[in-house]
Amino acid sequence: MPEKPQRLTVNEIYTSIQGESSWAGLRCVFVRLTACDLRCTYCDTEYAFYEGKKRLLQEVIDEVLAIDCPLVELTGGEPLLQKNALPLMTALCDAGRTVLIETSGAHDISKIDARVHRIMDLKTPGSGECARNLYSNIEHLTLGDEVKFVIGSREDYEWSREQVEKFSLCTRCRTVLFSPIFGRIQPVEIVDWILEDKLDVRFQLQMHKFIWEPMERGV
Ligand code: SF4
Fold first, then answer.
1. What is the C-alpha separation between 104 and 142, in angstroms, rounded?
2. 3-state DSSP: the chain helix, strand, coil percent, rounded to 5?
3. Which of 14, 60, 113, 174 to pair with 168, CA 20 to 30 A apart?
4. Is 2 within a domain?
5. What is each CA distance from 30 to 52, 114, 121, 150, in whole angstroms?
6. How many domains does the chain have?
7. What pLDDT sits at residue 78?
8. Span of 68-72, 113-117, 176-180, 212-216 with lowest mean pLDDT
9. CATH number of residue 120's parent domain
């Protein structure tokens, strides 16, 4: 029996400026995979829940490698819902690309190629999906990885601060990101709290929402 071709359902592939994380500001190819099993209250990529095209894994690899850009990010939706996201990341690493993955934190990150930088959310209470955090992921985090908290209130901030302390996240990974929910909280509030509490986290804004219209796709 010939082997079944490996496929991925892809929402979009595009080049832009990385808008978040410690990689913000750099040119980056985004591979947005279709589907997510969470429904965060602030989700800005609902179009990736269902829209997408089934494509051959090799075709996706070829398309990304044809773009002259050293940085690639897998995002979604939730990229880890598709098992072929794993060989895609490995192939891109093998080809010398720096690979990032944005994941909700609700799925096992341990099978991801060790060369990949994992940017993992810990979902705050305000997301409505806090119960989905897979805490066993924390022991797999390395100094190449980042943990992101998306914060919409003082309650979210205090919860995030507790997690940072409880799991020593600032020393466990490359950086801890505190990011405001766009339009729900004034960024300066979070900045003031971080300064007051002397937290060694990295405050961030979603840069792409200031460069382009906040709901613009493909940027
Ligand atoms: S995990 Fe990401 S893609 Fe999924 S609902 Fe939450 S914000 Fe949206």
1. 17
2. 30, 25, 45
3. 113
4. no
5. 14, 20, 18, 20
6. 1
7. 98
8. 212-216
9. 3.20.20.70
Query: Mean per-residue pLDDT for 141-159?
Result: 98
In ligand 1, the atom with minimum distance to the C-alpha of 150 is 7
How much is the pLDDT for 218? Answer: 82
If one residue of 20, 30, 39, 43 were mutated to test the ligand 1 pocket, choosing by the most ligand atoms within 8 A of its CB, it would be: 43
The rounded Å distance from CA 46 to ligand 1 centre is 8
Q: How many helices (H) and strands (E) does the chain have?
A: 6, 9
How far is the C-alpha of 145 from the C-alpha of 141, rounded, in Å? 6
Q: Is the pLDDT of residue 5 over 90?
A: no
Q: Is residue 1 assigned to a domain? A: no
Ligand 1 cavity residues, CB under 6 Å: 36, 38-40, 43, 45, 76-78, 104
Which residue in this structure is represented by tokens 């098992």?
A: 83
How does DSSP assign 66-89, residue by residue? TS--SEEEEESS-GGGSTTHHHHH
User: 154-166 and 187-197 helices cross at what angle (nearest 10)?
Assistant: 40
Range of the domain at 88: 7-211
**Is residue 62 scored above 90 in pLDDT?**
yes
How much is the pTM? 0.96
Whether the predicted pLDDT of 26 surpasses 80: yes
Decide: helix, strand or coil at residue 175. strand
